[in-house]
Every structure is written in C-alpha cells, then in structure tokens.
From TrEMBL:
<feature type="transmembrane region" description="Helical">
    <location>
        <begin position="255"/>
        <end position="278"/>
    </location>
</feature>
<feature type="transmembrane region" description="Helical">
    <location>
        <begin position="170"/>
        <end position="193"/>
    </location>
</feature>
<feature type="transmembrane region" description="Helical">
    <location>
        <begin position="227"/>
        <end position="249"/>
    </location>
</feature>
<dbReference type="GO" id="GO:0005886">
    <property type="term" value="C:plasma membrane"/>
</dbReference>
<keyword id="KW-0472">Membrane</keyword>
<protein>
    <submittedName>
        <fullName>AI-2E family transporter</fullName>
    </submittedName>
</protein>
<dbReference type="InterPro" id="IPR002549">
    <property type="entry name" value="AI-2E-like"/>
</dbReference>
<feature type="region of interest" description="Disordered">
    <location>
        <begin position="387"/>
        <end position="406"/>
    </location>
</feature>
<dbReference type="GO" id="GO:0055085">
    <property type="term" value="P:transmembrane transport"/>
</dbReference>
<comment type="similarity">
    <text>Belongs to the autoinducer-2 exporter (AI-2E) (TC 2.A.86) family.</text>
</comment>
<feature type="transmembrane region" description="Helical">
    <location>
        <begin position="33"/>
        <end position="51"/>
    </location>
</feature>
<keyword id="KW-0813">Transport</keyword>
<keyword id="KW-0812">Transmembrane</keyword>
<feature type="transmembrane region" description="Helical">
    <location>
        <begin position="323"/>
        <end position="352"/>
    </location>
</feature>
<keyword id="KW-1003">Cell membrane</keyword>
<feature type="transmembrane region" description="Helical">
    <location>
        <begin position="57"/>
        <end position="78"/>
    </location>
</feature>
<dbReference type="Pfam" id="PF01594">
    <property type="entry name" value="AI-2E_transport"/>
</dbReference>
Length: 406
C-alpha cells in the first residue's frame, strides 16, 4: 500500500515537472530573426506614424512634461509650507507665466520696431546684394547676368520665407495662444496628479520590475531636471553676453538678436549656425559689412566660451550623448515635428538612454547612444587582445618556449 502511494506521488511529481518544463519552454520561445526584425520595423513605423498624426497633442504634452519637471522643486517647496498640492501647482505655473511675460515685455519693443522696419530691411538687403554683385563683376570678371538669377532667388527666397514665417505667426496667433494655454494646463495637471501617474506606472508592470521602474522614474526626473534647469541658466547667461557685446558694438536690435541667438543656441550644433546667419543678415541690412563681420565673430567667440566653459560647468555631464546621435536626433526631430522636434530631441534621447541602461538586454543601445563608456570599451578591447594572445600561444607553443629561453 505504501509503495503504491509512493509511486502515485512520484508519477504526480513527474507530471507537474513536465508541465513546468512545457510552460517554461513556451514562455522562452523565441521567434526567428526575420520575424523579430519584421515586428521591430513595423513597430517603429507605427510609432513614427502615431507621433506624426498625434503631434497636436503629443508636442504640448512633452513640453508640459519638461516644464512640470522644471517646476517640481518649486511645487515641493510650497508644499513643505502646508500649501495644498493644487494651490502649489497653480502658483508654480503662475510663476512660470510671470517669467515668460517679463521676457516678452523685454523683447516686445524691439520686435515691434523690427517688424515695422522689415520692408526697408528688404530694400537694403537687395541694395547690398547689388553692390556685392558689382564688386564681384569688377574684381573677378564674372558676368552680372550670371550672378543675378541665383543671388536674387536666394535673397528673395530667404526674405520670402522670413516674411511668410512672420505673417503666418501673426495670422495663427490664436493657435499659438491655444497651444500655450494647453501646455500650461497640462503642466498644472501633471504636477497635481504626479503621484497618480507614478502609481499607474507601478501597477502597469509586474512586481518584480517595480524597483527597476522606480529607478528609471527617479533617474529620468533627476537628469531631465538637471539638464533643462541648467540649459535655462546657460541660455540666460549666453543672452546676457550676446546682448552686452552687441550693445558695445552699437548693433541695432541688440537685445532681440542677443536673445534670439541664445534661444537658437539650445539646439546642438545646428542652432549656432542658424543664429549666426540670421544675425549677420539682419546686421548687414541695418549696418555695414564690417558690423556684420563683427557680429559673426562675437557670436562665434561667445559660442566657444559657452561650449568649453559654461556648458560643462552649468549643464554638466548629466546627459552624455555622443555627437553623432545628437545630430541625427535633431535632424529626425525636425523632420517629424519641425522646430519643436529639434528642441525636444535631446530630452527624448536622454530618456531612451536611461531606459536602455536599466534593461539588461538593451544595454548595447545605451552604449551606442552614450559617450561615457570608455572604460567598458577599454576593458572589452583588453579582453579581446587577451583572447587573441591565448589563441596565438595555443597555436605555436614552441615559439613561446624559445622566446622564454632567449
């Protein structure tokens, strides 16, 4: 009787072991490479399509996410003094609005003057182009007719683009106001419901991934707050430097051009060239070619100071993304969302890099995005060199003995 019961339990255990093995094999089943590649490409295409179609709601949400992270210390400071969370979030957003209004009032006078003088700037630019054309014809004996079509098309195309941009901006002023209102509303609600959002993310994933998820949320908050806050401080310092140099040089629209160059400077690599071209073009139409050259040299020197001194000290090395990925991200952001995409590219890449660092099988992508993996690359190369040396020693052991005897 006991032996039969023992055999029954043994058979039962074997059955359960087989079931566990089958379940494990089903959960660890891997698709072929072609199928995985197809699903990956389809997922990327679907995400890009959704990002493009839903840009009207995704872009304000992303800007609100960055603004709420930047305003979170203010809200927490107010909550320490027994302010309700809703009131603390509202006061934080209100403080942000006050700062933006002060900046707009500072630039408003020169912006109105610039828009009023725009037709005269166009005429002066065409006169400058004609003078340059005559000088090239005299010095280099290049026919004016050969230069005329290209130069006029380039100048008029640039001015036409700027004119259409300004007209579209003021014609779509209502859309711009609606965009700003929704960004501020989203920022308020993200600050107010931040614990609810974190709880949702925690409940969305399995319990064994909870610690990793909370680590990703904490690192994302710290890095984005450090990056955005440092970037704002850097922009203010660069704007003050640009405006001071332009005022010393006697450049017209000094405040407008200085602040505009500082804003474009946020866009890595591409922004400084855009700001330099626009500033030199505007100065060329309002002053002399020497003044335009002085503006270009001044912006270049301030950019060198910013890249080598201000950026490492103020922004720091919190977001370590290599230059190639940065340029590709900015270009793709421009293709997908235009100018807002260029501003949002770096924070999005930083968040992707944090997620890749936290998930084991995605660590190679984090190495590809970052530039701080010098030690990892060095150790990997040392391991490869050791393996090659071992193989060479295994292939020719006699040569190693002769070398030691010598």
């Amino acid at each position: 009787m006991k032996s039969s019961i023992r055999q029954f339990y043994i058979q039962k255990q074997l059955i359960f072991n087989k079931f566990d093995l089958k379940e494990k094999s089903m959960t660890e089943f891997k698709l072929p490479f072609n199928a995985r590649l197809t699903f990956t490409l389809l997922s990327l295409i679907l995400m890009v399509y959704i990002a493009h179609v839903g840009r009207e709601i995704i872009i304000p949400l992303l800007f609100a996410f960055l603004i709420s992270i930047m305003l979170l210390p203010v809200s927490l400071f107010l909550e320490k003094y027994k302010f309700p969370r809703g009131l603390a979030a509202a006061l934080s957003v209100l403080l942000f609005i006050v700062v933006i209004v002060l900046i707009m009032l500072l630039m408003g006078t020169q912006m109105q003057s610039f828009i009023a003088d725009f037709p005269q700037l166009e005429k002066k630019l065409m006169f400058t182009v004609n003078s340059l054309q005559a000088w090239i014809d005299e010095k280099f004996h290049i026919s004016s007719n050969a230069q005329l079509s290209y130069l006029q098309k380039a100048a008029l195309g640039t001015l036409g683009t700027a004119t259409s941009f300004i007209s579209q901006t003021f014609l779509s002023l209502s859309s711009l106001i609606i965009f700003i209102v929704f960004v501020l509303l989203y920022s308020f609600f993200i600050l107010f419901y931040r614990k609810l959002l974190v709880t949702f993310l925690v409940r969305l994933f399995h319990e064994k991934h909870r610690e990793t998820l909370l680590g990703v949320v904490a690192r994302t908050r710290f890095i984005i707050k450090s990056y955005v806050g440092g970037l704002m401080i850097e922009m203010v310092v660069v704007a003050i430097l640009n405006t001071t140099v332009f005022l010393i040089l006697g450049i017209k629209y000094a405040i407008l051009l200085g602040v505009m160059a500082a804003i474009f400077n946020i866009i890595p690599y591409i922004g400084i060239f855009t700001a330099l071209i626009i500033s030199m073009l505007v100065t060329l139409t309002t002053g002399t070619p020497i003044s335009a050259l002085q503006v270009g040299i001044a912006l270049f020197l301030v950019h060198l100071l910013d890249s080598n001194v201000l950026l490492p000290r103020i922004v720091g090395s919190k977001v370590k993304i290599n230059a190639l990925v940065t340029i590709i991200g900015v270009v793709l952001g421009n293709m997908l969302w235009g100018i807002p995409g260029m501003f949002l590219a770096i924070p999005i890449i930083a968040i992707i890099k944090i997620v890749c660092e936290s998930v084991d099988y995605m660590n190679p992508w984090a190495i590809l995005l970052g530039d701080e993996q010098k030690e990892v690359v060095k150790k990997t190369s040392e391991i490869i060199d050791d393996k090659i040396q071992e193989k060479e020693n295994d292939q020719d052991p006699g040569q190693e003995t002769v070398t030691k005897n010598d």
